[in-house]
Each structure stands twice: as structure tokens, then as C-alpha cells.
Amino acid sequence: MEVKELSFEELLATKVPEIKVVDMGVKYKGHNPESPTFVTIGERIHCIAPSIRKAMDERDPEPILKRAAEQIAAGATYLDVNIGPAEKDGPERMMWAVKLLQENFNNVPLALDTANKKAIEAGIKVYNRTNGKPIVNSADAGSRISYIDLAAANDAICIALCSADGIAKDNEERMKHCHNMLERGMSLGMDATDLWFDPLFLVVKGMQDKQMEVLEAIKLFASEGLKSTGGLSNNSNGAPKTVRPIMDSALVAMAMMQGLTSAIVNPNDLRLMETIKSCDIFKNHVLYSDSYLDL
Amino acid sequence: MAFTPKTAPFSGKINAVTLGTGDKAIVIGGQNVMPFYTFDAPIENAPKIGVEISDLAANWDAPALNEFYAGCTTMVDYAKKAETMPGADFLCLHFESADPNGENRSVAECVADAKAVADAVTMPIVIMGCKNIEKDGELFSKIAEALQGKNILVLSARNEDYKTVGASVALAYGQKVGAETADDINLAKQLNIMLKGLSINPENIVMNIGTAAVGYGFEYVASTLDRVRLAALAQSDADLQMPIMSPVSPDAWSVKESTATEEDEPAWGNREERAIDMEVSTAAANLTGGADAVIMRHPAAIATIKKFITELV
């Protein structure tokens, strides 16, 4: 039997629970999309965490709001919202998550993170742009290239991973992917700065010899005036917990020197956030004051 | 093809701060362009001029100035007369005599003067102290209390006393508070952050980022003004978007160009003329640098600066 697919409006009206605004003691301070300061995308609302997966499945706001509040208090610019593969109920899941987070936290801007394109589209339908466009997380130059079309059609930012099938073998290949995706986005009417290129950060334990190449790729993006982002903490995968913040901080400083404009990070890593704020001072993106770490 | 000028207003905006109450209330700030750049966007609130009235005004030694205030003996007399001065937007009561190293007038006497003036005039009131941290702290708090509801501005809270001055003036008595720093953009930002940290609404803060008479290190003031404004407008730095008020007259009237007698400096010409010139140059330099209000003394200088503002905005 053919089941009629519900429109986003119908889904919103029938399948998305009403949002209750809860005072979590944290206010999102707002974000100026024109600002040159480094954009942190908080990665902690992710279905890989059992508590978040369960909360998403059961539409239980509390665990999600708690992680959001912690990340916002720590200074995250955007929050990533990973709802998992969400093959069945993706659209209503994403609409609920977007409304839940934005209505509770002063329209915090979000990166919508799922393989389900319908879900991303649904999320954008209910998204409030006050503090910045939604980010589609993510496209690549291979099987996920049509996520760029999705971003273009919905006036969104798109993270564009510079790989197709597996890790790019060198920067020539990375830049080929970059230019392919740039061309595709621009031919669909996107601004070049709405594609945030991801060089794909690689793990040191195993690919130590590739680290400088990744950093060089960031410089190549920046030299063309392009924005960039990526899962920076990949680099320290498998390293001891006490060492990871140090590696992440060192790498973010080197990457910001190369021109990295954003990263997907754990904002509750204090050392990392302090490093980012300090680099924004050195890059003259923020005027120094003795209290700059508290802002 | 016709030439189409490209306008460039900023996304950042200076806070609009209201001083005083009723018909004579003024608003300073509110613009999103550099000083007098009306070709980029309209400037809704033209810069304002305050008239300095010192409680030591009887010692002023300038014939035309004294002539203007002829017959005035009390601070109230001076204030009522100052309200009639063409170009005046607000009054600045300067309690120089409170200085413990000078006349050491009591806080109670100063407060009584301030209260009497506030009851007699309708223009907004700004209070300046004697620069002695301890005395000013008490004086500011007591005046802010006595003039509750008048929406006055108190100049200023400094790094040494921002907690007491900020807490009493702005939080307890709901007045506007000045944030005074010495020609250093980072200190200016830091003091605003600390005042905001006391939960003072940024819309209740006005900055004095440091002053000097032209020729006396004014290039530092000019550069600080410029950088503060660019941070506020171009970087949208919310911790520097407070409007700026520059007390011009105390500096302009105390440098040697304004004080040297004609016997000592015969080549320099009339002393009062020189003082007026110093005051006009310093005020114009502050306004073109970014000040949203200046405090001045002489009617001739004020008339000139008023004309300057009117023609540019």
C-alpha cells in the first residue's frame, strides 16, 4: 500500500512535540556573521553518545539541553546537531531538535548533521537565522556532493570535505576537490564564503607524516579567500586524555596561523578555547583587554 | 554614466544614551558611521555641547567671559545664565573646590549646590569632581542620591573607584556613569567590561577616553579616539560602543597659551582670544576624532563649535 508522504508543515503540526522553554541559566550571547573571529562548532550533541541517541529517540529534551548549555557557557559559536542516520523519522526529529535548541538558547546558530537530506531540509524550514545561516554538515566531492545542492537551494552554509573516495592522496587532489565543489556551489548561486572547506584532519598516530600537508591545504584555501573548518580533534585520536587538549591546542594555533576560520571542536576543552581566544587576539580579530578570556 | 557614490555604514553602532528628562533631554550616540560621515548614513543625534560651570568660577579671569556671567554669585546664578548661552545643550557642574588639597569644601555644601541647580534649571546635568579619588567617591554618591530622577551623568568612574562609583551612581540611584581612562584603548575596553560586570546596563555608560589640549600630546587622544571608534563600528566591539564625552575646557584653559599674561608673552596677543582659540581647536579636534559631546566654557568658543557642528551634520 502506498503511504502518502506528509509535507513539512503537516509533520511539524502532527509529529513535532511542543517545545517547552526551560531556564538553563545560560544565555547565548549572539553572533555577528560578519565578524572575522574564529567560529567554533560544538560537537557534543552527537548520536554516537548513548544518552543523546536515547534522548533523540524519545524526544527527551533534558540531556540535549544540558549538553547545549554546557557548550554555550563555554563559548561555542555554533552547535552541531547530529541526529544519527535517522532513516525513518529524520525530518520530524531534526525539526524538533532545531526548535528545541533555538527556542531555548536565543536562536543559537546550528550545523545540521545527518546523512538524511530530507531531515536537513526540514530543519532549515524551522531554522531562525538571527545569529547566522544554518550549516549543512556535510558534503564531499564524491557520493555526498549533492549536499551542496541542498545548501544552495536553502541559502545555507555547506561544509565541503575535500575528499571523494577515501583520503585525498596529496594537496593537488585536495584542491581539485575543493575547486570542483566551489564551482558547483557557485554555479548554483552560492557565495564562495558559504562553502567552508574541510581539509580532513588526520590522526597523528598513524599519519604523522601528513600533518604539515593538511596545514598547507588550509593555507591554500585561505590564499584563495576561502573559509575552512574541520574536525580538528581527529588529530589526537587514540592519544591519552591528558595529552589530547595539548595536541588540539597546538594544532589549532598552527592552523589559525595558516588561515583556518572555524573548527568542529569540544568547546568544553578549556585549554583549546583559551588558545583560540588568544589566537584571535594575535590575529587582531578582537581588541585586547585584560578580561579577554572571560568574554 | 552618472557617478553613484558608494555608502559604507558599519554593522556596529554606538549606543544611544539619553541624559536629562523632559523637553530638554538630549541623546548622544546612536550612529553607525565615523564622525560627521553623513554621506554614509544619517547622523540622527548631532554632537552635543555642555557648558562648564565651576564652583571656582569667581576666579575665572577673562573679561568677556566674566561679562557674560556679570552679576552671578551663586552656582545657581551661573547655571541659569549658562542655560541661555546659544549652542548650549547641557550643563556640567565642576566641583573643583572639593579638592582636599585645595579649598576642601565639604561634600554637604557641594551636594546642596548641585541640588539647588537641579531645582532651578531644565537642561541635563553632568557632574565633574575634583580628581581626588576618595573625595569624589563620596561626592558622586551623595549627588547621585540627591538628584535621583534627574537622569544625570557623573564623570567619572576610574579604575581605582569604579566599583564604588559604579555601584552607587548607576545601580543604586539609576544615573548614568562615565568611564574614565587615560588614553589607552585596552584600558578603556577593560573598564567598560568591569562596569558591565557589576551588572550596569551598557546603555547607562558614557566614556571619557582621556583628554589633552591640542599641542599637549593630543595625537595620543586622536589615535585612541580613532581606534575606539573603529573597534566599535568595524569590529562591532560591544565593549567599546559607548558614546564618548570629552571635557575640553579644563585642559584648554590651563595650558600656557591660555594662562600666560600679555606682559609675559607680548607677541602672543590678547589672552582671552588665545584661550578661546585653544578651546575651539581642542573641541573641534575631539569632535572630528569621535567625541559625541564636548564640555566647554567660553560663549564665543561654544558659538563657533555649535556652528561647526550644525554645518557638518
Brief summary of the model shown:
Chain A is an alpha/beta fold and 295 residues long. Helix content of chain A is 42%, strand content 12%.
CATH topology type of chain B: TIM Barrel
Oligomeric state, counting identical vs distinct chains: heterodimer
- What is the CATH architecture term of chain B? Alpha-Beta Barrel
C-alpha-based Rg of chain B, rounded: 19 Å
- The CA-CA distance between the termini of chain B, in Å, is 29 Å
Characterization of the model:
Helix content of chain A is 42%, strand content 12%. Chain A has 295 residues and is α/β, with parallel strands linked by helices. Chain A has a domain at 202-283. In chain A, helix 7 links the parallel strand 5 (157-161) and strand 6. In chain A, helix 1 (8-15) packs across helix 4 (90-104) and helix 7 (171-187) runs parallel beside helix 9 (211-223). Chain A is globular. The mean pLDDT of chain A is 95. Chain B has a single domain, classed as Alpha-Beta Barrel (TIM Barrel). Chain B contains 11 helices and 10 strands. Chain B has helices spanning 63-68, 75-82, 107-120, 133-146, 162-172, 185-197, 218-233, 249-252, 256-259, 271-289, 299-312; strands at residues 17-19, 26-28, 48-54, 90-94, 125-128, 153-157, 176-180, 205-208, 245-247, 293-296. In chain B, helix 4 links the parallel strand 5 and strand 6 (153-157). In chain B, helix 2 (75-82) packs parallel to helix 3. Chain B starts with 16 loop residues before the first strand and ends with a helix. At the A-B interface, loops of A face helix 6 of B.
Give the tags.
heterodimer; A: 295 residues; alpha/beta; 11 helices; 42% helix; B: 313 residues; TIM Barrel; eight-stranded parallel sheet; two-stranded antiparallel sheet
SSE topology:
The complex is a heterodimer of chains A (295) and B (313).
Chain A: H1 8-15, E1 39-42, H2 50-58, H3 61-73, E2 78-82, H4 90-104, E3 110-113, H5 117-125, E4 135-140, H6 146-153, E5 157-161, H7 171-187, E6 195-198, H8 204-207, H9 211-223, E7 227-228, H10 244-258, E8 262-265, H11 270-282
Parallel strand pairs in A: 1-2, 1-8, 2-3, 3-4, 4-5, 5-6, 6-7
Helix pairs in contact in A: 1-4, 2-3, 4-5, 7-9, 10-11
Chain B: E1 17-19, E2 26-28, E3 48-54, H1 63-68, H2 75-82, E4 90-94, H3 107-120, E5 125-128, H4 133-146, E6 153-157, H5 162-172, E7 176-180, H6 185-197, E8 205-208, H7 218-233, E9 245-247, H8 249-252, H9 256-259, H10 271-289, E10 293-296, H11 299-312
Parallel strand pairs in B: 3-4, 3-10, 4-5, 5-6, 6-7, 7-8, 9-10
Antiparallel strand pairs in B: 1-2
Helix pairs in contact in B: 2-3, 3-4, 4-5, 7-10, 10-11
